[in-house]
Write a sequence for this structure.
């Protein structure tokens, strides 16, 4: 079953083509999030570091890590709502 929760960045809520922590949410891919630039498996490995990285990203203006991928009607607020409750 496709679990949507496993396809979003835990830090910024951006949807990912491949699950950042694998199909079961256990094995990090060590890819970089296009949006916030987090490396899956490092800065997002526990709630504390997730919150820390997210705050740092928001404080710096929530710039997209790879700007060319910015969708036309991108909304930060809407994207942040994708973040599963337990990673907030
Ligand atoms: Zn992200």
């Amino acid at each position: 079953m496709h679990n949507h929760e496993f396809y979003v960045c835990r830090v910024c809520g951006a949807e990912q083509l491949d699950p950042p922590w694998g199909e079961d949410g256990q094995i990090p891919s060590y890819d970089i999030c296009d949006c916030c630039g987090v490396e899956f498996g490092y800065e997002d490995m526990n709630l504390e570091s997730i919150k820390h990285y997210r705050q740092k990203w928001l404080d710096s203006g929530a710039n997209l890590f790879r700007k060319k991928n910015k969708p036309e009607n991108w909304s930060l607020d809407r994207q942040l709502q994708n973040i599963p409750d337990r990673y907030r």
User: Anything to note?
Assistant: The chain has one domain: 1-88. Residues 9, 11-12, 14, 33, 35-36, 38 surround zinc ion (CB under 6 Å). Residues 47-59 form the longest helix (13 residues). The radius of gyration is 12 Å.
